[in-house]
C-alpha cells in the first residue's frame, strides 16, 4: 500500500514536470476541489494492454472553446497535449462531441452513437450550464446524468463529470450553485469522479489569478486560453496518474 | 411576511403575542439574505449547514402558522367572506412586491448582459435570453410562470395564500378535512411530480406548490388551534425523541459534509442523493426535518424565553414583524452585497464586512418600520419578568 502511494506520488510529481508542449499549469488547484486518488480501470487497462487512450469529451460551447479563438487552445486540445506529455509512448486521442447550447438530455440522446463511433476508454462529460440558464429542474439533470453514467459504464468506459463554469457576473443572475451541487451529488452517488470546475474557477477568480469578467477583448482571449489550459491540466494530471497506476496485486 | 397588518377592529389578542414566531422569522430573513449571496462563506453558518431543511422551510412554516392564527381569528370573528378578503388583500401586496423585485432583478440582468457579455458563457448559458422576448416575458412574469433565480419563494407564498381561505374553512370544519387532502396532494406531487408550469420551455416551479402546501397547511393547523385558544398539543415523549434523533442525524450529515468541504476533514461525508433532499418537491426528509425542528423549538424554547426579549433578540423580533418589507430588502441587499464582493475580491474579511453591513441595514429597516408603525415610537420591549406573568 505504502509502496503504491510512493509510486503514485513519484508519478504525480513526474507528471508535473514541464516537458515539451505541456508547461506546468498556471493555476494551482485548491485541494478541496482537486481530483485526487481517482481510479479509472478502463483507461488503465487500455494504457496497459494497448498503449492507447481514447478520450471522449461531451459538453457545450465551453468544451468547443470558441472564447479562446483557436482550436489548439480548447480544453480537449490542451488535454490531449498534456496527456501525451504525461504518458509517453501512449497513443492518446481526445475526441470532442459538443455543440453550442447543448443540454445534458441532448447529449444523452446521442450518447449511444457517440460511444459506438469512438469506443472511448474514458468519457469526460461537462454539463449544467444550459440547464442553469433555463432554470430547469435539477433533479431532471441528475437523472439524465445518472442514465448516461450507466450507459457509459455498460459500453466499457470510465466517466468523469465536470461541473459548469463560474463567473462572478453570471453567478449574480443565475443560481449556478444549485446545478453544481446536483452534478456533485450524482457523482458521489455513483462513485464517479467529479471535476469541480465551478469551484476551481471561483477560487481562481477570488484569488485574482483570473479576471473571469474581463471586458477588454485581448484580455478576454488571454483569460480563456489560460483558463482552458488550467482546466485541462486539472484533468490531465489525475487521469495520467490513474492510467499509470499499477493494479493492486 | 407579517400578518400584523390585518386592519380594523382586531381586538387585543386573548393571549400575549408569541414572540418566538417573530424571532425565528426574523432569523430566517437574515439567513435568506446570507444564503442568497452566491459563494458566501458565512452562509455556511446558516441553518442549511446544520439541518436537512433550510430557511425556506422555516419561512413557509412560520408564515403558515401565523396565517392560521391571524386569519383564523378573522374567520371566527368576522366570517369566511371577510377573512377571505383579508387574505386576498395580502395576496395583492405580495404580488406587487414580487413584481417590484422582478424589476430590480431585470435591471441587474440587463446590466450584466450589456456590460459584461461574457464570452466564456456565450452559447453556453443564455442568461438574459428572456430579454429577447419582452412581450412574452411580461406575460409570463405576471402569470408567475417566469421565476428568475433567487425570486421563487414569493410566487409560492402567493399561490399558497390564494387558496388559503379554502384551507381556513376546511380547518374550521375539521382539521382532517384540511390535512387529509393536503397530504394526498403532497403524495401525488411526490409520486407523479405534478407541478405548475414554468417558463421558459418545459420548466416548472422551483418550489412545487402542490408539495409545499402540505407544510403550510400543517403549520396553519397549529396556528388555527391557537386562534381557537385551544391548549397546545401535547406531544408524546417518543415523538420528541424521534424528532431529536432526526435533527441530530441531519445535523451530522450536513455539518460533516460542510466541514469536509471547508477543512478537508479526513472523514468521508455521507452525501445524500439529490432526490432525497431536492428542494423542489419537498421530499419526506426535508418535511420531517422542518417538523422535527419545529417540535423541538416549541418544546425547548419556552414562550417567554428571556433571550427573545433581550436586546438582540428583540431586534430580531421586530425584524420578524416586518417581514414582507424586510424580505424584499434582503433580496436587494444580497444583490448589492454580491456586487461589493465582486468588486472588492471576495476575501473573507470583505465577506464578513458585507454580511455584517447587510444584517445591520436589515435590522435598521426593521427598527425604522416598527417606529413608523408605532406612530413615531418603538414598541416597548417587554421585561422578561412581566412577559411571563
Report on the structure:
The complex is a heterodimer of chains A (249) and B (389). Chain A is of the alpha/beta class. Chain A is built from eleven helices and five strands, in the order H-H-E-H-H-E-H-E-H-H-E-H-H-E-H-H. Chain A has a five-stranded parallel β-sheet, sandwiched between helices. The relative contact order of chain A is 0.20. Chain B folds into two domains: 1-6 and 13-48 and 305-389, no CATH class; 53-233, no CATH class. Helices cover 67% and strands 0% of the residues of chain B. Chain B is built from 16 helices and no strands. The radius of gyration of chain B is 21 Å and the shape is globular. Classes of the chains: A alpha/beta (249), B mainly alpha (389).
Topology:
The complex is a heterodimer of chains A (249) and B (389).
Chain A: H1 2-16, H2 41-50, E1 52-59, H3 61-64, H4 75-86, E2 91-98, H5 104-118, E3 122-126, H6 129-134, H7 138-154, E4 158-162, H8 168-173, H9 176-190, E5 194-195, H10 197-206, H11 217-244
Parallel strand pairs in A: 1-2, 1-3, 3-4, 4-5
Helix pairs in contact in A: 1-11, 2-11, 4-11, 5-7, 7-9
Chain B: H1 19-35, H2 55-78, H3 80-115, H4 134-142, H5 153-162, H6 164-173, H7 175-192, H8 209-227, H9 237-263, H10 274-277, H11 284-300, H12 306-309, H13 311-321, H14 323-344, H15 348-373, H16 384-388
Helix pairs in contact in B: 1-2, 1-13, 1-14, 2-3, 2-8, 3-5, 3-6, 3-14, 6-7, 6-8, 7-8, 9-11, 13-15, 14-15
